[in-house]
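Posting this for the archive.
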Amino acid sequence: MQQRNHYKNIEDFLADESFKQWVREGKERENWEEWTVENPQRAKLVAEARLWVLATRVPESPIAAAEITAALQASREKIKSIEKDTSAPSIPLWRRAGWRSIAAVLVLGLALGWLFKRQTLTQHTLTYTELINQDAEGLIEQTNNSNKPQLITLSDGSSVLLQPKSKLSYPKSFEGNERNVYLSGEGFFEISKNPKKPFFVFANEIVTKVIGTSFRIKAYTDQPNVEVVVRTGKVNVSSNQTLSQPTVASVQLLPNQAIRFVRKQLAFEKITDISQEKLIAKTSQAIEQLSFEFADVPVAQILKTIEQAYLVEIDYPQEALKDCYLTTSLSDQPLPEKLKILCESLGNMTRYEMNGNQITILSEGCN
């Protein structure tokens, strides 16, 4: 495993059998993922190498020999048309040794691309209704019919800020080895960490596997695109067909990165810098813009920041806490965990109560 620390070229990865097994079969997934995100340059190189491995993998769907022959013939005709345009009359382009090698690669690439495109267009993607009907657990469905976001707290301590005209289905408690929820619309998620029990968000055509904590998913059924935007941590995004095909490749997103699924083209577009995307920046919410890093800041100001981020109302004893200042980090934490850290910092006599979008802080003051 130490040898890979010296990989500097795509060829190094392509010669590594362990790397190819990870990409194709998901073996040693956690080890490779953790190693990849340690270095931004490394992550970029790994992403390119993954594409090379996947590009040379022929889809396993049954395709008639006649269709393959037609695809190859179309590729040959394309090469011949290029050959006619060349101005070198002495030796036909097709007979030159170097061009024969290039042409062979081109034929293979075009054929594989055609077959992959054909397979992609014929695959069926599951809808929100189909997904929740497949879940064996009894689900609670929360629909936001109001004109402002609603806060939902899940049984594991995770929190979801559900936008208007959106709905979320989730179990009363998470059983088994996974935590699965289902979204139609838009929500901002902050997930409680539990490496032994990964968190999955199924949002129409896509599945988001949570490795870190906070991200936004926008998956309205009547809009042309589905988007996932990461604020902190990291997530893996793939087609929801991974339910039946666990080896289908996924795209990993790091902070300030996003991915857009274009429904018309059935294609993913990765965005490595969301600050360059005006549409994403325009739709970002307060919770994505505010900082939760506090250095010697009045408690009242911290509570105000939480109110602005989650659109909640916080009732607290202003006189008892007026002289309380805190230095703390509340980033990378769902709302219940933020409140817990805040109360513990103020002292043993401080606690909180939450009822929907109303929060009450009970305290006798800071230590």
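DSSP finds twelve helices and 18 strands in the chain. The longest helix spans residues 97-122.
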